[in-house]
Design goal:
Rossmann fold; disordered N terminus; alpha/beta; transmembrane helix; 2 domains; transferase; globular; 15 helices
Length: 341
């Protein structure tokens, strides 16, 4: 077909496919979304709804499909893909925002773009621009980083009791502290935001562990900036609670984290972290993925080489056949565990 329509038609086809229309920024806040004109791979992104006829894909944040703004009232054709996106856990969307996903059902959505690796477009919190340099770190980086470590554990949290997971993690960390683990705790839950703001980057870098405790339990692949930025990117060993260990193993550098599920009690985990604090050789083992990356690390690098809108753009430009997701409710809610919801 591309050759039949001639060179001008080919040009228009590629141009049309490479535009991504963001129907509305997350929660209506432009500060929470991509900038106008943001480029991902060969694609450009816009909020300008008058360009909907040009768009290869229209991206709908879960908060942004209003009853009086249904896009089919404006434009849609069979070559256009409607994409559902969320970076929040189903637990949060269901209970904190009390949102139904039914408005996305009935064949409205073609693809899902979330942090879940089993969706159509993998959109992790650790996007490629951050992951690629982190996965290139070497022994020299490791030596200089470990030399700065003098404190044990850090936790920053402001969601104290909004969700079941919020309460469970708060209780778990309280028990860690009661068992003798020094945890420096900051954020809204501890009413010391001003003290937190005064801390320098050197202070933050001096911790060996970050408590990467999510606000949801056993939500598929739900690993946020608490794991990636506060832990891996900032050179700390993440101590994980929330996602299943098998999910973390699939998505994280091998041997890079400690999972609470491996310990009979918070007291046992506290004892192990105190042991690692006194044993530099054992602690260093959690950075083996930096010193001696193996085949598993090659898989991880490939997984994060292209993410989010880059992957969406690649899919669009590959001229795929439509893939209708009949029910976002089934994908986002009904496929999750009871603990997650």
């Amino acid at each position: 077909i591309m050759f039949v329509v001639g060179h001008r038609g080919v040009f228009n086809f590629v141009k049309r496919r490479s535009l991504l229309l963001l129907w509305r920024p997350p929660w209506g806040l432009f500060s929470e979304g991509r900038n106008e004109g943001f480029r991902a791979g060969e694609c450009e992104m816009t909020y300008n709804r008058s360009r909907i006829a040009e768009a290869g894909a229209v991206i709908f944040h879960y908060s942004g499909l209003d009853k009086d703004e249904m896009p089919w009232k404006h434009y849609r054709d069979s070559d256009q893909y409607f994409v559902f996106t969320s970076m929040e856990s189903p637990n949060y969307v269901m209970h904190a925002e009390r949102r139904s996903m039914s408005k996305f059902d009935g064949g409205f959505i073609n693809w899902t773009m979330t942090y879940r690796s089993d969706g159509n477009v993998f959109s992790p919190y650790f996007e490629s621009s951050s992951a690629i340099p982190v996965f290139k770190r070497d022994q020299a980086w490791l030596n200089s980083t470990l030399a700065t470590k003098s404190k044990i554990a850090l936790w920053i949290v402001s969601n104290c009791a909004l969700l079941r997971g919020s309460r469970l993690r708060m209780d778990y960390v309280t028990k860690l502290v009661e068992a003798g683990l020094p945890v420096d705790r900051y954020g809204g839950c501890f009413k010391n935001k001003e003290e937190l703001a005064k801390k320098s980057s050197e202070d933050f870098n001096s911790y060996k562990f970050y408590l990467s405790f999510e606000n949801a339990e056993h939500c598929k692949d739900y690993m946020t900036e608490k794991f990636w930025r506060s832990g891996i990117e900032y050179g700390k060993v993440p101590v994980v609670w929330g996602p299943k260990k098998s999910d973390v193993e699939h998505l994280a550098p091998p041997g890079s984290f400690i999972h609470a599920d491996d310990f009979e009690s918070p007291a046992k985990l506290a004892a192990y972290l105190l042991y690692l604090d006194k044993n530099d050789t054992a602690y260093r083992e959690y950075f083996k993925w930096v010193e001696h990356p193996g085949k598993e690390m090659e898989r991880i690098k490939e997984l994060y080489a292209r993410t989010r809108e880059e992957v969406l753009c690649d899919k669009l430009l590959s001229n795929p056949s439509p893939n209708i997701v009949e029910s976002v409710t089934d994908f986002f809610y009904n496929s999750e565990s009871k603990e997650c919801l």
